Structure formats: C-alpha cells, structure tokens
C-alpha cells in the first residue's frame, strides 16, 4: 500500500495537512515501511506558517486539487490534523485520511488511537 505522510521530522506524523509543504511517500508491505520520495506542494492553507490557521477559513477545491494531484496514487494520508471539508473531499476521491501522531515506523499497526 502506498501512503502519504505529513511530517517535518521524517520520524513522526507531526504536521497539519493544511500546513504541509511536502508529503513523504512510503510503501508499506506487511510491517516494512519504505520511504520512496518526498513530494513538494504549495500548502493547502494559505496563511503564514507561523500563524495559526483561522478555523473559519474557506474551503478551496482548487487548492485541494493541487495537493490531491501530488498524492493521488496513495491509498491513505497519515496526518496530525485535517479540516472536515478537505478530509471529506479526499475521501470522495478515494483517499482515506488517518489522523494520528505515531512514529512513521509504527504506521503499519496504527489505528488512529495514538492521538
């Protein structure tokens, strides 16, 4: 299974989906997690990286489509947090979102209860 992970450390799922300027792409076979590449994107949320995103910011299908096109070959996205509308839009396009904060090496056993 191919997955996308939002990570700043390369060790743990530690970044909000909307703030991610890159996605680490992994293949998972049984309990083996293999890094394939890192794909750069324009962050979905357009606010300054130091600012907290506004909870009522408008959903943008155009911005989400740009991110989706970079990760569309992935079955799942593991992310620290994601807004409801982007999560629903990804699900409608066939990508499952798994909010978590586990170590990347522990993703094969992740149930999302690590938060």
TrEMBL record:
Organism classification: Bacteria, Pseudomonadati, Bacteroidota, Bacteroidia, Marinilabiliales
Q: What is this protein called?
A: Dinitrogenase iron-molybdenum cofactor biosynthesis domain-containing protein
Top-level taxon in the UniProt lineage: Bacteria
Q: Gene3D superfamilies, per this entry? A: Dinitrogenase iron-molybdenum cofactor biosynthesis domain (3.30.420.130)
Signal peptide stretch: none
Entry's PANTHER family?
Answer: DINITROGENASE IRON-MOLYBDENUM COFACTOR BIOSYNTHESIS DOMAIN-CONTAINING PROTEIN, IRON-MOLYBDENUM PROTEIN-RELATED-RELATED
SUPFAM superfamilies on file = Nitrogenase accessory factor-like
Q: InterPro entries in the record, alphabetically?
A: Di-Nase_FeMo-co_biosynth (IPR003731), DiNase_FeMo-co_biosyn_sf (IPR036105), NifX/NifY_domain (IPR051840)
UniProt source species: Draconibacterium aestuarii
> Per the database record, which ranges form the Dinitrogenase iron-molybdenum cofactor biosynthesis domain?
10-97
